[in-house]
Design goal:
Number of strands: 13
Number of helices: 19
Strand order of the largest sheet: 8-9-10-11-13-12
Largest sheet: 6 strands, mixed
Shape: globular
Length: 440
């Protein structure tokens, strides 16, 4: 593709760009991983535009879609054949050359290709994308330690969603309530009613249809539903089934539906093997595939006392709530949904998962007697975060939070709710009440 044409594309910024650019001139190859249609190609285009802004020579920037068999054949012939191709296109190999490879998993041996480039051709910077971490693992026979840096690309966060809707002022407002700000105690108490109705309408749209970029840009709800159904049918039901030789497609698809119905619930592996009529190891394999193709993500329990707390049963959440809603065919407004609590919990999980780098770990907590905290953030200590999607008339701390405080004595806690924004003291700790739609 002509780099000059890419430079003219109208693209929306993504939060990962800033982090990726920190590696743009280091030796390591950059690999972007994520499900299909999450915007990996657009991020490659954004990086190209940034290089052009930095006055990097256009004749030393190249973009290749490896679904193009002609280009794929050139790369599969080896590094020397590729270098000859670059020179034939006018590249000056004595200077920095940026090579963007979309869908790198199509290469016969991508790990060897990257290893040779990084070790022997330091002027060439590889920036690539791939759609499945399992597919990448099968092809990447070497560990490439010290030769690559990997970024997972999710669907749009709510803040990015607002930018895609051309709501820059609302996105800027939300950016003042990032998780980092909250964890550092940098929160300004405001009256949430100052936000107009549009903000809440957009939040409800996000809860219904999720954050796939193309679906976000579509205005008709009927088309959004069709597009999500197409992603589910082609990516989950077809592509993943075929790519990993799923021996029991019916059980696999029923597992996906079961996960969609019980998001955030304790997952009983043995019970589900009976319902799906599959072996335990088969269930484990299917869950592993779904995680590594970015459909779901597991959450393990936090525990210190094996006698009183759960230590094994995980929870599962979907990486995109729109895809989850499509699977159960429920796009209703939040006020008439029976699963709104679980949906909000899944929304919060996607935010925490996207910000995982600022935590040592994310877990949940539950005692055998039934006390439970939705999320435990481990970051220089432990931080409980409870999702209570209800209206709070005052800043009363729920009993499960008090129980956790008395047991573990954390320095701060978060209660995500419908309406209340406040900060109070409990013993020697800070307790933050945050409206969930303000939690970005």
């Amino acid at each position: 593709m002509d780099i000059r044409s890419i430079n003219n594309f109208r693209l929306f910024n993504r939060e990962k760009i800033k982090l990726i650019l920190e590696w743009i001139d280091k030796k390591e190859a950059i690999i972007l991983l994520g499900a299909r249609q999450v915007g990996k190609s657009s991020i490659l285009y954004l990086l190209i535009q940034e290089l052009v802004k930095r006055n990097k020579p256009v004749n030393n920037i190249f973009y290749y879609d490896l679904e193009d068999f002609e280009m794929l054949n050139i790369l599969n012939k080896g590094v020397n054949a590729f270098l000859e191709h670059l020179e034939s296109k006018g590249a000056d190999l004595e200077k920095r050359v940026y090579v963007f490879l979309d869908e790198i998993q199509y290469l016969d041996n991508p790990s060897n290709f990257i290893k040779l480039i990084v070790d022997h051709h330091p002027n060439i910077k590889i920036i690539s994308s791939g759609s499945s971490s399992l597919e990448i693992r099968k092809k990447f026979k070497d560990s490439l330690v010290g030769r690559k840096v990997v970024f997972e690309i999710p669907t749009l966060t709510f803040n990015e969603f607002l930018l895609f809707k051309d709501e820059e002022k609302l996105a800027d407002f939300l950016s003042k309530y990032t998780l980092s700000h909250l964890l550092e105690g940098k929160i300004k108490i405001i009256d949430p009613s100052i936000l107009d109705r549009k903000y809440h309408i957009l939040f409800e749209e996000y809860l219904a249809f999720g954050g796939y970029p193309a679906i976000t840009l579509e205005s008709k709800e009927s088309v959004k539903k069709s597009m999500l159904s197409e992603i589910y049918n082609t990516y989950v039901r077809k592509d993943i089934n075929q790519l990993f030789d799923i021996e029991n497609p019916n059980a696999f698809n029923n597992l996906v539906k079961a996960l969609a119905v019980q998001i955030g619930g304790l997952f009983n592996h043995h019970s589900l093997t009976k319902d799906l009529r599959i072996a335990y190891l088969t269930l484990e394999r299917y869950l592993f595939i779904l995680e590594n193709t970015f459909v779901i993500k597991s959450l393990k329990p936090f525990y210190k006392n094996r006698q009183k707390e759960l230590v094994k049963m995980p929870k599962y959440y979907f990486r995109d709530i729109g895809l989850r809603n499509s699977i159960i065919n429920n796009f209703n407004r939040p006020d008439i949904r029976t699963d709104i609590g679980e949906l909000i919990e899944n929304y919060v999980f996607t935010i925490l998962e996207d910000r995982l780098s600022i935590f040592d770990e994310i877990r949940f907590w539950r005692t055998k007697s039934g006390n439970e905290i939705d999320f435990i953030l481990e970051q220089e200590g432990i931080v409980p975060l409870e999702v209570k999607y209800q209206e709070f008339k005052d800043s009363s701390i729920p009993r499960n939070i008090i129980y956790f405080f008395d047991t573990y004595r954390p320095k701060r806690a978060f209660i995500l709710n419908k309406n209340r924004l406040d900060k109070i003291k409990y013993k020697n700790a800070e307790v933050f009440f945050i409206p969930v739609w303000l939690f970005g």
